[in-house]
Design goal:
2 helices, single chain, Maf protein, alpha+beta, 85 residues
Length: 85
C-alpha cells in the first residue's frame, strides 16, 4: 500500500518524487495482524520505489512524529543511494 500511495502522489503532484507513510499509530489495531507502532514509508521516483518497514515505540503522537521523520530520512537516503551525485 505504501508503494502505490507514493507512486500515486508523485504522479498526481507531477513531481520528481512521491512520499508516503502508512501504518498503525494506535490506540487500536483495527483488526490488523501488525502490532501498534508498525509503519511503512515509501519513496517513489520514475521507475523505482523503495518501501521501508519500521517499528516505533510509544503513544500515538510519538509514533506519528517518528514516522514523519522516517519518511524524510527515507528520501534523504534514497537520494544518496539511488542517484549518482
Amino acid at each position: 500500500m505504501a508503494a502505490s500511495m507514493a507512486q500515486r502522489a508523485r504522479l498526481l503532484g507531477r513531481a520528481t518524487f512521491g512520499l508516503s507513510c502508512t501504518g498503525l499509530a494506535g490506540p487500536g489495531t483495527a483488526g490488523s495482524a501488525e502490532p501498534i507502532g508498525t509503519v511503512f514509508t515509501a519513496v517513489a521516483a520514475k521507475g523505482v520505489t523503495r518501501v521501508t518497514r519500521h517499528r516505533f515505540p510509544g503513544d500515538r503522537g510519538r509514533v506519528q512524529r517518528l514516522a514523519a521523520r522516517a519518511t524524510a530520512e527515507g528520501l534523504r537516503r534514497f537520494l544518496i543511494d539511488e542517484l549518482s551525485w
